[in-house]
Design brief:
The chain is an alpha/beta fold. 35% of the residues lie in helices and 22% in strands.
């Protein structure tokens, strides 16, 4: 039985590299095929790189940016930074240029690990670059592969022991998505992240034989923490190269566990629904009935009907995920209960969690033997929670040290008794399960004085096959309206689209009839003042790079409302 007694990320590294010998530890795609890095190779590369970084001039306490796609080299660089007492600052590889430069300046970054030559010119500050996947022979540029080759002759782990951090030292600065304005630098300590790993170790068993597919960016604290948990179990981890390649890699890797954001699961759910409509009469009839059956909250898996559906339909749907998945953790945003119920019923167990960057990030989660669909699970063992004036508060070893360069905001967010004010409206049932109802900032006051909770309505609108994202407009307005951003996959997959431009396609009567029928159904379940009165279909591209979406795929309302001000005003 292994003893998880590490207290810092550096000690976690020592634990991993002395406890396991996995030859297929970290796996990445090269020329279309997976290439493996063993635990021993991982150890050597981290030590060699850390010594090279020290020789380049990186000092204890320096903030080093990791501006790259997720890969084993992202992790190797991260661990090397900590080996010399520096602080890692992950930056989303698809971040807007404005926020990129803000974060580099705010954290006083002097060194940047980068894997995209195209984004070099976006960085305005004078920094030293460590490049990966490309090489530039100029002053101020070092290449990762060259560093590995040059440093192998002088890799001595004893040279690094004096840099061992304390558990209260800053481990990383993680910038929030900035969906309501300027990103905030969340300072997390070694104790913060290690407390999360230890908590998850107590509730989730993960033998070394598990196979992981890593889909989410490591710059997101959710994937960063879960990845740290994977690493501490010595399992085999396979990285996705590009998001469009996920469906192919699921079949190749056949993972037993993975993490996802709700939007990925929503797209798979709606694609299944659309594929059913394209089947021949008999196949469509069977598949449609099986689909509806899987939405039942109290499905009886002992019935003859379930066994038929399982053999003919559900087994094929499980193959979408590779056929072996036993744990799929959803986080980053609320997941629609119907979608969670569907996947769990067909044999792809969904475990929804909840948290904030400020809590490293997990506050609560569902897990095997403790899963209540629709909830965000129970609080982790070392996290206290309570409800004060409908808001969820949390306290424990995982709560951030504070916001970088912003003491006032820190004191507003964490009170003098150590309680983190999450900003989420929530409830806790008698069994301890947490139900998140809305963000306080996503509850809008109409000019009539009534309040509208935007998130549940937006989720309902996004169920329509023509809609990718929905944004409710209500604040200081006399009634509720919405912007509906189209799902271009529907247009691209429609064999009849050749006769229409994108705008013409989404202006068809059948599109408006479908949307209006759904709005009518949604309105029936809402209070009179919450009902949607007007809507506008938007066919423009909506992206992270242009600022309408955060890197975690949430709507950035301030940008949307500014960019589409004229369309919004026309609805009033």
């Amino acid at each position: 039985m292994l003893s998880y007694n590490f207290k810092t990320y550096n000690e976690l590294f020592d634990f991993i590299t002395t406890s396991y010998t996995n030859p297929n530890f970290l796996n990445y795609l090269e020329n279309g095929k997976y290439k493996s890095i063993s635990i021993n190779e991982f150890k050597e590369k981290v030590i060699c790189l850390s010594i090279a970084l020290k020789n380049m001039g990186v000092k204890r306490g320096d903030c080093i940016a990791i501006f790259a796609k997720s890969s084993p080299f992202w992790l190797i660089f991260d661990f090397a930074i900590h080996k010399i007492g520096a602080i890692s600052v992950p930056i989303f590889d698809n971040i807007s240029t404005k926020n990129l430069n803000f974060e580099i300046e705010d954290a006083n970054i002097k060194y940047v690990f980068i894997d995209s030559i195209e984004r070099l010119e976006d960085i305005e500050s004078n920094v030293t670059f460590i490049t990966h996947n490309f090489c530039i022979k100029e002053d101020g540029f070092y290449n990762l592969d060259d560093i590995f080759v040059m440093s192998t002759v002088s890799c001595d782990i004893n040279d690094l022991k004096k840099y061992s951090p304390n558990e209260d030292d800053i481990f990383s600065i993680i910038y929030t998505s900035g969906n309501t304005g300027t990103p905030k630098g969340v300072q997390l300590t070694h104790k913060n992240i290690i407390s999360q790993i230890k908590d998850v170790n107590t509730i989730l068993k993960l033998p070394e034989t598990e196979v992981i597919l890593s889909v989410l960016p490591l710059a997101h604290i959710f994937e960063r923490m879960v990845m740290s948990f994977y690493l501490n179990r010595g399992v085999s981890i396979y990285f996705v190269d590009e998001i469009p390649n996920i469906s192919n890699l699921l079949k190749i890797v056949r993972p037993t566990m993975m993490t996802a954001v709700p939007r990925l699961l929503e797209k798979i759910f709606f694609k299944i629904k659309m594929n059913i409509e394209s089947k021949s009469f008999i196949s469509k009839l069977i598949a449609k009935n099986a689909f509806e059956y899987a939405l039942n909250k109290n499905m009886n898996k002992t019935t003859f009907l379930y066994k038929i559906f399982n053999k003919i339909v559900y087994s094929k749907l499980r193959e979408i995920f590779g056929g072996r998945i036993t744990k799929l953790v959803s986080g980053g945003a609320p997941l629609n209960e119907e979608i969670s119920q569907f996947f769990t019923n067909i044999g792809v167990p969904i475990y929804q969690g909840y948290g904030l960057t400020e809590s490293s990030p997990v506050i609560s989660t569902n897990y095997p033997e403790s899963n209540k669909i629709g909830s965000s699970g129970k609080a982790l063992p070392n996290v206290e929670v309570k409800i004060v004036e409908n808001e969820l508060l949390a306290r424990g070893a995982s709560i951030m040290k504070g916001y970088l360069n912003n003491e006032d905001l820190t004191s507003q967010t964490i009170d003098n008794k150590g309680w983190l004010h999450t900003g989420d409206i929530a409830s806790i049932d008698k069994d301890g399960y947490i139900f998140i109802e809305s963000r306080k900032k996503d509850i809008y006051k109409l000019s009539t004085g009534n309040y509208v909770s935007a998130i549940p309505i937006e989720q309902a609108l996004s169920k329509n096959k023509y809609v990718e994202f929905a944004t409710i407009i209500a604040n200081n307005k006399k009634y509720v309206s919405c912007l509906l951003f189209v799902d271009k996959d529907v247009y691209n997959n429609d064999i009849l689209n050749k006769q229409f431009t994108l705008e013409e396609y989404y202006n068809q009567e059948k599109v408006h009839e479908s949307i209006e029928a759904d709005i009518k159904k949604i309105n029936k379940k809402l209070n009179e003042w919450e009902r949607i009165i007007q809507y506008s279909i938007v066919t423009n591209d909506i992206s992270i790079e242009s600022g309408e979406l955060t890197p975690s795929m949430k709507i950035c309302r301030s940008v949307i409302e500014e960019k589409y001000e004229e369309i919004i005003n026309n609805m009033y």
